[in-house]
Amino acid sequence: MADIQTGLDLGLVSPEALQNLFDLEQYPLLAELSHNFQGFRERLLADPKFLNRLAIEESISITTTLLAQYQKRKGKFFEEIDYVVTDTLRGIVVDFFTVWLPAPTLSFISFADDANGPDSIDALKGLLGSIPDNAFQKTLAGKDWNVGHRVASVVVGGIKLAGVGFISSIGAVAASNVLYSARKFLNPALVNNQQNKRSPILKTAVVYSGFLGTSANLRYQIIAGLVEHRLSDMFADQTLLVNIISFVSRTINSYWGTQQWIDLARFTGLQTQKSESSIIINQTIESANPATIGCNNTEGFTGLQTQKSESSINQIIESANPAQIGCNNTEEAGVDEIES
Description:
Elements: H1 2-10, H2 15-24, H3 28-36, H4 38-46, H5 50-73, H6 81-100, H7 121-129, H8 147-186, H9 188-192, H10 201-234, H11 239-267, H12 276-287, H13 289-300, H14 305-319, H15 328-339
Helix pairs in contact: 3-4, 5-6, 5-11, 6-8, 8-10, 10-11, 13-14
């Protein structure tokens, strides 16, 4: 853990950070994560309850996502189950990063010292290392964050989440389309009766990345920074109250975010349904085929097959009701014409 040693040498490690590190050593899993993964170490040092918050977020996300999906889709929940599964699986992956990326960190490595030039990768690392991971994070020893740094934190965090949303969305929609194709192959009749259209992969990825980079980014910046970092510190001696605040805020956020995404997806046309009249017309034409054939054969005796079949199709499309379409009148007319 060279970064900890660097912080000790520079006198930047506070007694609280050292105490957090010692506390982590008591738990084998946390000790393993903090020793081998710098990202976990930086987050666990800044917030020893980071993994608890991650577990709370994931459990809340799955539950509230399904509830919000059911409330929005009502009786079409199972009919649109592929959308539900897609959104839920994507949410599990994305929620990890929405907790991970905006979480406050405690790092003692200065990337700027290793920069070789303004165009080097190290210079970019130095720029990113100079801004906080959360816009509301408390200023650390050796750092001088102003309003510009905190605004940049929101922008950079939004870009990161947008990238996560783009990649995860492509994977989720592709998996949903594969599932749809498999269902269509196994049971074509069931799939043909579904009214929901398929989501375009690229458009879905663009819209979802924009949603994560704006709405989700701002919401999680506030929760991780204001609610769990600053407000919770005010009640640090009341562990139960802190956990309740975290649980309630993340529950509301997850539920509200899911509803926002469903509304946005429908507004942009990503998750829409074919019009009812279109479905009825298609089903009417398909179900009327045998009867139409019978009518056409009768009409063929009079030499009026073409004209009357066109008229029958127009009536089918206009009425869109197979029950109202009958062949008796046509057949009776054909018999009368033959007799005359």
